[in-house]
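Components:
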Amino acid sequence: MKNCECPGAEKLHGRFRGCGYRMTAGREAVIKVLQETQEHLSADEIFSKARVINPDIGLTTIYRTLEKLSMMGEVHKLDSGDKRGRFELANSGKGHHHHLVCSRCNRIIDYDDFIDDEVRLLKEMEKKLSKKYNFAISGHLIQFYGVCDKCK
Amino acid sequence: MKNCECPGAEKLHGRFRGCGYRMTAGREAVIKVLQETQEHLSADEIFSKARVINPDIGLTTIYRTLEKLSMMGEVHKLDSGDKRGRFELANSGKGHHHHLVCSRCNRIIDYDDFIDDEVRLLKEMEKKLSKKYNFAISGHLIQFYGVCDKCK
DNA sequence: CCTCCTGATGAAAATGATTTTCAATAAGAA
DNA sequence: TTCTTATTGAAAATCATTTTCATCAGGAGG
Ligand SMILES: [Mn+2]
Ligand SMILES: [Mn+2]
Ligand SMILES: [Zn+2]
Ligand SMILES: [Zn+2]
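Structure:
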């Protein structure tokens, strides 16, 4: 595993170990799929792609790995409007970004334009809200809904 | 129906008619439940409360009414983290507000503090994003996640 | 009021994503 | 290599939501 071309893979490898978990072929496949895509994949889509890497992997393992990675804060689970969950790596090449969600085709588009202004406001809000509501804020979600260019 | 004490009920009544739909006892019950609660109810919870008003109503009608109201833009469907949807009237006494979502008990807390600053930024973002991504924005979602006071 | 056309409804069955069960397997520490 | 136990795949179970279908009732037009 010393020549892994997937940036971050080793880190995740270590994080699994650190939590008392084992790194397996299935988990590596899921992580690799997430690292190589630019999209926001569903469990089933991850399954298809992971099968190319590891033909014996089962859908159950996809769900279990995704769940584990979510708990570890390494993947974000998104809601695109259709009923299935969609996932993305929390620490990919893309930095902190938010989403435009198409109500027609459910596609999720990343944006990080003007994100600094957004984050600045968010930080202020967090401070004020957590004090007023005695609520320990650990994350936020911002998305805009509408119709994407392809669907117009 | 002239002495209805539920503000907005008549308006909704009219909106149904205007769309070629009928106003029925079931729909009135669902609307009443939504108007009287301060919480963010699930379909099943709305079902229980609606039954008190109209014992013969079925869960299916709850879903169908909620769906119709959503399409009409009269209710917002929320995602609280547990798997079922939660609903709130779009035009209730509460004005435009956003949410704090407890990751532990899934409770949804309304806030409208500092909402003006948020909305101002949102409007700017909308303008810039819709131009850059050729995306017709029709709504937004902002929520903060964390642990509520009761769960700490 | 009475009729008629259709939209609306409830019960039951179907759906579909996600979870659980369970016996078999394989990390990886020693 | 051994041994403990986390992990796995297949199949069954869940469970919120949707669909089907025969029946019912809103309300426009008489
Ligand atoms: Mn993204
Ligand atoms: Mn609310
Ligand atoms: Zn689209
Ligand atoms: Zn809570």
